[in-house]
Write a structure and sequence with these properties.
By secondary structure, this protein is an alpha/beta fold. It has 18 helices and 18 strands. The two termini are about 30 Å apart. The structure holds zinc ion. The site of zinc ion has 5 residues, from loops. The site of zinc ion (ZN) has 5 residues, from loops.
Length: about 525
């Protein structure tokens, strides 16, 4: 989301650079017992593998990991038939019995803000919620805690000094993200991008935080310079920029990816050029912003119309990536469901809960007078939006999985799994959902670099980033929630909870996902106790 007081936050970031005090506590060093390995030779035995390409499950398979790499994925027999030991890879330093487990590539959250002072979160809290839900890579869209903070945690995660996913920093385009002044000319735009590259950024999140970055010549310079320096580009094309530049126009300039949906319905206008704003609309009133956003898709060309097809075809031809983040808008269509999600009690920090509550000053807290009509508009809005995204996927477009949690009653990790469910609701087969969450994310991150992805598939040669779960996620994606899925056991007649990620493997290190979640529960209990 576009952070509340982004400018204030960014100014605070500049202050941080001077006094070296982190805005949000850094993650503690990895303690003894937090993760095992990497191993000389780890073998996950007899598992059912979902490889991430969209191929169906296959098993029993032995997955061999040496150090931080997958070296072999071998079929060792047939379902329900005893495995011949002679056919199996040998010499394991450590074995995991995977005979009742599904093994998937680690998930990529393409829209993961690391929390901050607004939410009252710590890095440990956010990182462990991510890891406990199988998220082994996060693109930080904007690096709102500051470039230095983000690089610091990225580097420590890369060395496995902390329990955290791989962090891929994209940097906000805003004058407060560097000391070079306003980004108000093509020359300044190029200098800004050079400074991002120099400081180790992987890409740009183009957003108009007070700078005219959607002026065509400035946007063109940002994108062109990013391409030269092999940086990725994405945008949150807010209402304040879209009158000047819609998504199709930006994609024509070479933009690689978009967040959310902003600028897409505007690309589909046929009988207007500007959204039908009520005359008393004020962008700084978030009930206006989100309320009217729910009435936007119906103003665009309808599914399968000539315009709808033409825009889609052109985006496809440009190789454009869509990162929809359906989940972060869910409260708009069903506030009660989202507020009352079953994980809040145990896993949502009181400070985060306060941040979610109705406020004219907090971002995403626009529940001043949220009505039945607003929710119905949003339900219809979702249908049109989902139809576009599903068809984009059907025609070969790349759709990735991002959550944007930490706002609007959406919790880190848990609401990434909710995004998987919403992709299925949009029309994705569960295998298409998994592919979006794994291979597609990895490919989108690698594309600007010109290199091949190093993770995102269960395949020899890939980095060992894996999710292990003892239920079939294709049958029910809910088994990936930390709280598991409800299941009536017909043998015992009892209701039980099944699933929850069992192990998450990152860089060859095996983490017990339930232990990570127990740590989060403790952190929440401690904050509650203090209050
Ligand atoms: Zn965001």
């Amino acid at each position: 989301m576009l952070k509340r007081g982004l400018l204030i936050l960014l100014l605070a970031t500049a202050a941080f650079a001077q006094n070296d005090e982190p805005q949000q506590p850094y993650a503690p060093n990895r303690r003894a017992g937090e993760g095992e390995g990497p191993f000389k030779r780890l073998i996950i035995r007899g598992a059912t593998v979902i490889d991430g390409t969209g191929a169906p499950p296959m098993g029993p398979m032995d997955v061999v990991i040496e150090g931080n790499r997958i070296v072999e994925v071998r079929s060792v027999g047939y379902p329900k038939v005893e495995i011949d030991p002679a056919r199996r890879p040998k010499d394991a330093e450590r074995e995991i019995d995977g005979s009742k487990m599904y093994v998937l590539p680690g998930f990529v959250d393409m829209h993961g803000h690391a929390g901050g002072t607004e939410q009252g979160t710590t890095a440990e809290y956010v990182f462990k919620l991510w890891m406990a839900h199988g998220i082994t890579t996060v693109r930080d869209p904007g690096s709102g805690n500051g470039v230095e903070w983000t690089m610091h945690e990225r580097d420590r995660s890369a060395k496995n000094e902390i329990v955290a996913p791989r962090i891929v920093p994209y940097i906000f385009t805003g004058s407060s993200m560097w000391d070079g002044g306003a980004i108000n000319s093509p020359e300044q735009a190029r200098k800004f991008v050079q400074s991002v590259a120099k400081r180790g950024g992987a890409g740009l999140k183009i957003i108009g935080a007070g700078d005219p970055v959607y002026d065509p010549e400035i946007l063109a310079a940002l994108i062109d310079e990013a391409k030269k320096l092999k940086l990725g580009t994405t945008t949150h094309l807010s209402q304040m920029g879209v009158a000047r530049m819609n998504i199709l126009q930006a994609a024509r300039l070479g933009l690689g990816c978009m967040e959310h949906w902003y600028g897409l319905p505007e690309s589909l206008f046929t009988d207007r050029t500007i959204q039908d704003y009520p005359v008393d609309y004020n962008y700084s009133d978030e009930s206006h912003r989100f309320g009217q956003a729910g009435r936007l898709w119906k103003q665009a060309a309808p599914p399968d119309s000539a315009k709808w097809n033409a825009v889609m075809d052109e985006l496809l031809k440009l190789g454009f990536t869509i990162d929809p983040t359906f989940t972060i808008y869910e409260a708009s269509r069903d506030l009660s469901r989202t507020m009352n999600a079953e994980w809040h009690d145990r896993y949502t920090l009181p400070s985060l809960w306060e941040w979610y509550e109705p406020s004219r000053k907090a971002h995403g807290a626009y529940w001043f007078d949220w009505t039945t009509a607003d929710e119905i508009e949003w339900k219809n809005n979702f249908r049109l939006w989902m139809a576009f995204v599903n068809e984009y996927k059907n025609r070969g477009g790349r759709v990735t999985t991002g959550s944007d949690s930490g706002y609007i009653y959406k919790l880190y990790g848990f609401d990434y799994i909710r995004e998987l469910e919403l992709l299925q609701e949009a029309g994705f087969h569960p295998l298409e959902v998994i592919r979006s969450a794994t291979m597609n994310g990895a490919e989108a991150l690698a594309a600007p670099t010109g290199k091949r992805p190093e993770f995102g598939l269960v395949r020899p040669g890939m980095l060992a980033d894996l999710v292990l779960v003892d239920e079939n996620p294709l049958h029910n994606l809910k088994v990936l929630y930390g709280t598991g899925a409800i299941h009536l056991n017909d043998t015992t007649g009892k209701v039980e909870r099944i699933g929850g990620v069992k192990y998450v493997v990152k860089d060859g290190i095996v983490y017990d996902a339930k232990k990570l979640l127990a740590d989060v529960e403790r952190i929440v209990a401690e904050q509650k106790g203090v209050r």
